[in-house]
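Lab notebook, bench 4. We co-purified these components, and the gel suggests they stay together. Before we commit to crystallization screens, I want a quick structural picture of the whole thing.
Request: model the full complex, all chains together.
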Amino acid sequence: MAPKKGPSNDRDVDVEDRFQAVVLTDSFETRFMPLTADKPRCLLPLANTPLIEYTLEFLANAGVNEVYLTCSSHASQIDEYIENSKWNLPWSPFKVTTILSPEARSVGDVMRDLDNRGIITGDFIMVSGDVVTNIDISKMIEFHRKMHAQDKDHIATMCLSEATEYYKTRTFEPAAFILDKNTNRCIYYQDLPLISSQEKGAVQIDPELLDSVDEFSIRNDLIDCRIDICTPHVPPIFQDNFDYQSLRTDFVRGVISSDILGKNIYAYITNDYATRVESWQSYDTISKDFIGRWCYPLVLENNMQYDQTYSYESRHIYKENNVVLAQSCKIGKCTAIGSGTRIGEGTKIENSIIGRNCRISEGITIKDSFIWDNSVIGDNSTIDHSIVATGAKLGSNVTLRDGCIIGFDVVIDNGMDIPIGSKISSKPVKSLGSSTFDLEEEDEDEEVNTLSTELVGQNGVGYLYDSDASDDEEESYGIHTISNRLAHQLEELYMSDASISSITKRKKKKRTMSSNSMYTDREDVDSDEDDEEDFEAEGIATIERALENNHDIDTALLELNTLRMSMNVTYHEVRTVTVIALVKRVYHFISTQTLGPKDAVHKVFNQWGDLFKRQAFEPSEFVDLMNIIMDAVVDENFEKPDLILFGAFTSLYDNDILEEDVIYTWWDNVSQDPRYDGVKVLIAKWVEWLRTADEESSDEDDDSEED
Amino acid sequence: MSTQNIPALLHNNSNAVTEIEISIDAFIAKLKRKQISGSYVIALETLQLLKRFLSAARWNHVNELIAQIRELGNRLEKANPTAFSCGNVIRRILAVLRDEIEEDMRESSAAQGSSAGVGGSTVANTAAEPLISSMFNLLQMPGQSTQEFYEPKAKTKTDFRQVVIQGIKDLIDEIKNIDDGIQQIAIDLIHDHEILLTPTPESKTVLKFLIRARERANRTFTVLVTEGFPNNTENAHEFAKKLAEHDIETIIIPDSAVFALMSRVGKVIIGTKTVFINGGSIVSSAGVSSVCECAREFKTPVFAVAGLYKLSPLYPFNVDKFVEFGGSQHILPRMDPRNRLDTINKITDYVPPENIDIYITNIGGFAPSFIYRIAWDNYKQTDVHLDEKKM
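Here is the predicted assembly.
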C-alpha cells in the first residue's frame, strides 16, 4: 500500500503498517427468513458461491492486510467456514480473524465491541458481509486521503454508487443524501419510505446545516452499498453514543447533525457496480447482474473458490465440469450449472442458476429460478421465479409459482401446487436465541407449528413460514408481502420513479408536511392502507394541535387547507375532521369536568365555529355540515347528546354561520334513522321555535328550552 | 458446500510452504482478477515467477521437475484461460528443458553404448528428432513417443536448474527485443504515400512498427485507426495522438466506415494476442475479424505482427472458449434484469487464417499455413495439453 499522504497525525505509523477491514456479517434483519434460521445470510449462495466470498474477494482486491469478521448469529458456522476456506491458507492475501459477539443486537453493539477490543489502529474499511462490487477501491482511498488532508474533522467516507434511470429497484432502504456540491461532504442524510409504500417522504433540513454551504445537491439516486472507509475515531463515537444502533440512520445522521462532535462524513460517488444483497429482490437482481456480466471483471468463470471449474459460453451460459445434460434438454440464456448436476430429457432451463449435484429429471421447466446444491426435482415440474434451497426434494408434477421459497431439506409431495409467494421451511422456525429472531418469540403461534400438509402433500415435510408475523420493519402490511417476494412483481407495484405520478392520480393522495408537524409524522407510521383515513387522522391531529396550542383560526385554516390540497380531498372530508376534532374537544372538557356540557359546547363552537365559514359555501354544504355534526355527536356517545347538538347548532346560528333557511332545509330532509331520534328531541323544538320566531318576528326567551 | 477442496498439492507440502507458494497464489489471484493484462507483461511476469519457482523447486529426477513445471503451467492456464502467453512461455521453457535432457541422454548413452548398450535408449534418440523428416515418421502416433518420460536410471551430470534458468533469461531477452526484430521488416513493407489501416490501436508492436517506418525510412504515409467502440476507444485516441506526435498523418474512423474506406487502403496491419497453430489468431479488439473479412473482400493484404512468444501450440477447436467476453456495464446503462437487453461484449476476436496474408514475427515473415512448422520448432507436442496427467 502506498504510504499515507496528508498531514502527519498521531497515528500515522500504524496506518502505513497495515490496512484493516471490518466485515459485518450480521445485518440484524430478518429479510431472508426462513432460510436464515439455518444459515447466516453471508453464507447463502449467490450464483453458487457463498456471499461472503464476494466481500472477501473485494477486500483482497483492495489490498487489505487484516480482516475482522464480526459474527453474531450463527457465528460458529461462519467461523467454521472461514477456517476451511482459502482465506485461512498461509498465502491468503490477508489475515482473517473472526470476532464472535453473540450478544450483539445491532451494528452499534458490534462497533462498541470492536472499540472495547482495541483492534482498530488506523483507517479501516467497513463493509457488510453481503456486498457484491467491482469498484476500484484505490480511487476511493485516494479520495479519502485527499479529503482527510483538507479537512481535519473528516472521519468517514461512504461509497455510493450511482443508479441509472433505468434501474428501478435501487435499494431496499432508500435514502436521500444531501451533499455539498464541491466537496461531496454529506450535509444531511434521511431515510425515505419505499417508493412502493405509497407514502410520501419529506426531507426536513435544519437551515443551520446549510449555512456554510454554497451549493448542495439532494440525491436519491444513490445506491448505498455500505462500503465505508473510517478513521479510528469512528468506534469511539459509537461508544460515546450508546444509543446508536444502525450505521446510517443513527450514526451518519447523528454525526453530521451534531454540533458537539463537529465531525464530517464524505461521500465517494462511483458509477461502478456496487450493491448489497439485502432482500430477496436484490438477491434476484444481483444474481442476474452477475450472470449477465454487469460487474465484470468479477464474473463467475473467475472461479473464486478453489474447486470451481466454471467456463463461459456465449449467451451467458456457465457450466462447470461434470455436468450431465440429456440430449433433448434446452439450456437457455443466462444460466449457470454446477458440477455433478444431471439434467433429464426435455427439460428447459432459462435465466436460472442450478447448484451442484442436483438431480433434475425429465420434462421440467425452470425459469428465473435459483436451485441450490443437492436438490432433487421430479418429472414434469414447473418452477417459476422461485428459490429451492439446498437439499430440498420436489416430487413430480409440482408447480412452484412466483416467489416461492422452499427451505433447506423441505420435501414436497407429487402433484402439489404451491401458491404465489409461499415460504416453506423444513422445521418450524423458532427463535434461535439470537437478536435477529427476537420477534418470532412473541409471534410464534400455533399456526406456524403445524405441518402444512395442504401445501407439501401427505408425504411432504415442510412448514409454512408466516413472514408477516416476524418482520420487524416498520412498513405497513402491504409492503411486507411485497418485500418478501422476488423482484418479479415489482413493476406492478410502482417501484419506479416514472410511476409516482400514476400512484398519485390513482390514489388521489399526496402529502406535504409542514416543518412543525411532528405530530403528523408520528401519525404517518401508524396510518395504513386507506388514504381517507390518513387524512382523517392527520386532519384531526392538526385541529387538535390548533385547539391545544390556541392557534389563531387563520393558521389552523391554512394548515388544513394545505393538507386538503396535498391529499386532494374534498371539503366534505375537511368538515368531517373539523367537526370530529371539535366534538372530541367538547367531550374532553366534559369528561375531565373542566366545564359543564353547555359551557363546553359554547366555548368550543363559539371560538372555532368560524372555521366552517371557510369550509362550507353553498347552502347544501351547510346542510351537509349539520349532518356531520349530528353524526359526530351521536358517535361520541355523550351522556346528553341532544344537549350537545343543540348547543352546537345554536352557537353556530348565533355566530351567523348557519342561516335559518339552511336549518329549515336540513330539518326537512333530516334522516329518519332511529339512532338519531335521541338527539333530535331538542332540535325539533328549536326548529319549531325558529320558525315561529321567524314568522312572528318576535323574541322569545330560549332559556326555558334548555335544561 | 462450506468446505472447499483445495488442491492436494498445496496440502502435501504444507510443512514446506514457502514464499514461492505465496507468490504463485498471488499471481494466480491477479490473473483471475485481471489485474495484470497485456500478453507482454503477463509473459514476462510468468517467466519471473518461473525463475523463482525453479530456484525453490526440489526434485530427485528431472521427470519430477517436468511434472512440477507442468503443474504450475496448468494452474496458471486454469486461472485465466485467455491469458495464453502464460502457457506459451512455460511450454517454451519445457521444450528447452526436454532438448537439454535429450542431449544429455544421447551423450550418456553414447558413453554407455560402448560398454553395455541398452536398446531402449537408442529408440529414444531416433524419436527425439524434432521435425518430421521422413514418410515413416509421419505414420507415427504423435505424442506417443518415448520422449515424454525419461528413464530414471541415467545419472545426469548436467545441472538442469542452471539450464532452465539460462533458458528463461534467454527468453526474457528475446521477448524484450521482439520489437527490434519486427521493425527491421517494417521498412520494406511500407511504401511512400500509402494508406494503412489498423484496427488494433492498443498494440505496442504496431505502434513501434509504424513509428519506425516513419523515422528510419522517412516514409510519408497515412494511418487510419478504427475507433474500437466500446472497449478500445480510449486506446484508439491515445494511439492516434502518439502517431501524430511523430508526424504521421492519422485519422480516426468509426468502426462502421471500414467497408467504405477499404478500397482506398493499401494494407491492413493488425497486432495479435495469440497466434494458434492453424494460423488463426486472437486479436485484442472486437471487430477486427470483420475488418479482416472486409479486407479480403477488397483483396487488401492483411499483415499481422506478432512476437514469437505469442505463438501458441493450441488449436482453436472451440473459438468461444478462447475469446474473452467482457462486461456489459459500459455498453448500456444499468437496467433491471426483468426487462433489459442481454449484451454480449467480446473483448477479443478471432481472425481465421484465411483472412490473414502474412505474419510478421521477430524471426521473419511467414504465411499462416506455415505457422505450425514454427510452432513445432519451439514447442514439444507432449506439452500441448498441460492438464493431461502423465503416468
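Chain B has two domains: 8-176, 178-378. Worth comparing against the SEC data before the next meeting. The CA atoms of residues 54 and 290 of chain B lie 43 Å apart.
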